[in-house]
């Protein structure tokens, strides 16, 4: 996470983190469906409007690092060294995401997500949004239209590699296996 530079930005970031931490603690203690927005706001000592100024929906409280994950994927494309191949840079970033989400300390959150249809649906829509952002970054990097089927396909495959790896017995091996297929598909495309 990027450190906010000004006092006001630091205060906003601290409030956001306090809300997210409080929500997650309550969800893990009581269950996602048994905790309301008002419960989270009261426990975090903020107004409901303040909570919604930081998080657009109850589900977003569980995925508070969503924007950071999306930025990481885009940076893996946009900030790679000149001449560094695209697919290995993406593989490295997906490995980092998978390590984060499959770490032992992430297991309670993963269980919480799996236990809630609302959270699973939100996670799926989040992945689709990440794929769109990643496809746009790939297209911009290559100077092709955002609607490029090859860029959109590779982005979706990269996001799916993350999802499949998080469910696999050996997450790192799963990322590598999927990325071998992505590399072959990318090499076969006209954009590689």
Structure report:
Keywords: DNA-binding, Transcription, Transcription regulation. GO terms for molecular function: DNA-binding transcription factor activity; transcription cis-regulatory region binding. This is TetR family transcriptional regulator. The protein is mostly helical and 192 residues long. The chain folds into two domains: 50 residues, Orthogonal Bundle (Arc Repressor Mutant, subunit A); 123 residues, Tetracycline Repressor, domain 2 (Orthogonal Bundle). 73% of the residues lie in helices and 0% in strands. It is built from nine helices and no strands. Helix 7 packs across helix 8. The longest helix has 26 residues. It is globular, with a radius of gyration of 18 Å. The relative contact order is 0.10. The model has no long low-confidence stretch (mean pLDDT 92).
| CATH level-1 class of the largest domain | Mainly Alpha
- Uncertain segments of ≥5 residues (pLDDT<50)? none
Oligomer: single chain
**Hey, roughly how much beta strand do the residues contain?**
under 5%
Short description:
The protein is mostly helical and 192 residues long. It has helices at residues 7-30, 37-44, 48-54, 66-78, 86-102, 107-114, 117-142, 149-167, 171-188. It is globular, with a radius of gyration of 18 Å.
